[in-house]
User: What shape does this take?
Amino acid sequence: MADKDMWSKKAAAFTSDAKIFIDGKYCDAASGKTFDNIAPGQNRTIGKNASGDTEDINRAVASAKRVFDAGTWRDMNPRDKKIIMLRWAQLLGENREELAFLEAIDTGRPISDALSVDAPNSTRVIQWYAETIDKTYDEIAPAPRNALAMITREPLGVIGAVVPWNYPMMITSWKLGPAIAMGNSIIVKPAENSSLSALKMAELATAAGLPDGVFNVVPGLGAEAGQALARHMDVAKIAFTGSGPTGRKMMQYAAESNMKAVSLELGGKSPQVILKDCVDLQAAASTIGWAIYYNAGQTCNAGSRIIIEKEIKEELFQHLHTFLESFVVGDQCDPATQMAGLVSEIQRDRVNSYLDLIGQEGEKLIFGGEKTSGNDLLIKPTLVDNVKPDSRLAQEEIFGPVLVAIDANNEDHALQLANRTEYGLAASVWTSDIAKAHKFARNLRAGTVWVNTFDMLDVITPFGGFGASGGGRDKSLHALDSYSALKTTWVDLN
Assistant: This one.
């Protein structure tokens, strides 16, 4: 990994005027409109992004539909499709450093994280789904002997994917991999402040041989490009990761247009439950710290609530203090940095508004809690104790480095508190009793439950939630089903 000075100089000199990527090539927005691309870690405007709107979405959908209807990708020999996707994955790996740099510049996250996590994981997802192409079988139903009943997976058509700014490259790959592997075409609408990695991924896909029109990228404002994509009559599915209010709009847009399929992943307020028989509170504290302070808490499944049996709280807090003494907060260009600033002033101000709530209902600040203003987007890791279970701090997704602690009287009370939220994305339980762990995990209402760990994610397992966290599932073989439709073909053999 390069040193801090090299990354700092590269970041200070970097500029980018990002365009739209349609039908295998870059182009300007039809309207000529642009918006500023601000690098949060550098606190400066690095260029102008083309601002796509309805006309650009129409162009992208027309391109995607044309290649889908022609069968150029859809009907290609599976072995040949796999070769192209594997070549794409290879190019992503070869361009790892550039992709990581673009990701870090757009989001303000540490360059070390983008290099070690975002870029390689995105490559692995594309490679993994490439390998599924010639290994996914259809079915023969147990029909009478005078008939043949076949059940096949059919691609849906044109997919619209709207992705957020916190992990744009990885979440984009979660949509791209299964959608393209199943033979669909796709249009990605990145978040306004994080378009660069998706555009580079599309460029590399074309270089690998993916037919023009299969993968298009339209940067733009959500109210313009995002809404146009979700309302488009030729889009068969919208896959959205983001906020609850916008997710509800996606469902509304689908209902008001062509009843397209909708897949939603909408965030959470994930509990980390620490029971008194947890034998290694030091390990628990380190994992708990990473689960909330990684990426400055800007993670949908961040472990933002700790629910603790009272007997062990003081010792756990001591270990959390020790963890933070070695946790490096600072410059995104420093390879040693483990947490940098937030993505924007808007997000910083949102987190500040929650810090204002501390103390209004008897909460106690253990560490952190200092608000920032002006150009300073770095809010220090914060822990708030004595939080009421039904307070805003305990119930609302802060999306910042703020951990709230809630006391549990016993195991049953801890389970009740863990499920006392509208969200259900992820959860963890810390205990030395394996039977208790299984029973507790079974009763947690969450799409992913970790036992004695947190945030262990891989493409081999599905990711998504219950309730207000949405009903979609990214990753794993199950995602292939969400980008295809089952067709029954019944043949009379008489």
In short: The radius of gyration is 23 Å.
